[in-house]
Write a structure and sequence with these properties.
This protein is of the alpha+beta class. Helices cover 20% and strands 31% of the residues. The chain has two helices and seven strands, in the order αβββββββα. Strands 1, 2, 3, 4, 5, 6 and 7 form a seven-stranded antiparallel sheet that branches. The relative contact order is 0.20.
């Protein structure tokens, strides 16, 4: 990992802008997949991609209008107990279970607008939740 390839400065500028946004999405639900601005992170924490530092996330638990528990997703095929591959919108996605984190709803953006990608079915959502429970225990 090359520290100089990471764009912390650009992330800080965008992070300030996201913090000042007051138009939070009103209708996000558990089991939905949204674009989220995850940022430029430290070490092996999952980064967002592109100039808006976005990545799809699965909303695992909605706490209130402002906070939710999310699992970042990837299209890179990975195996092991900390990964859960599944199909979403006819494409393979991998839930990065070890990267589970609380996010503020102001991060739900693709950089320009609020962007819901889709929803996992109830059976799959329960499988993912059970996999997280196994991982924690």
């Amino acid at each position: 990992m090359n520290l100089f390839k990471k764009s912390f400065k650009n992330w800080i500028i965008l992070k300030k802008r996201l913090h000042l946004l007051s138009n939070r999405p009103k209708g996000y639900k558990e089991g939905e997949v949204w674009w989220a601005s995850l940022g430029c992170n430290i070490g092996y924490e999952e980064d967002g991609k592109n100039t808006f530092f976005t990545r799809p996330v699965l909303i695992l638990k909605k706490f209130n209008r402002e906070l939710f528990l999310a699992i970042p997703l990837s299209t890179t095929k990975r195996r092991g107990k900390y990964y859960f591959p599944f199909e979403l919108n006819h494409k393979v996605s991998v839930a990065l279970l070890s990267q589970l984190r609380v996010l503020d709803t102001s991060r739900l953006t693709n950089g320009r607008a609020r962007a819901k990608i889709g929803k996992v079915d109830n059976k799959l959502f329960l499988e993912i939740k059970n996999k997280i429970y196994e991982m924690i225990n």
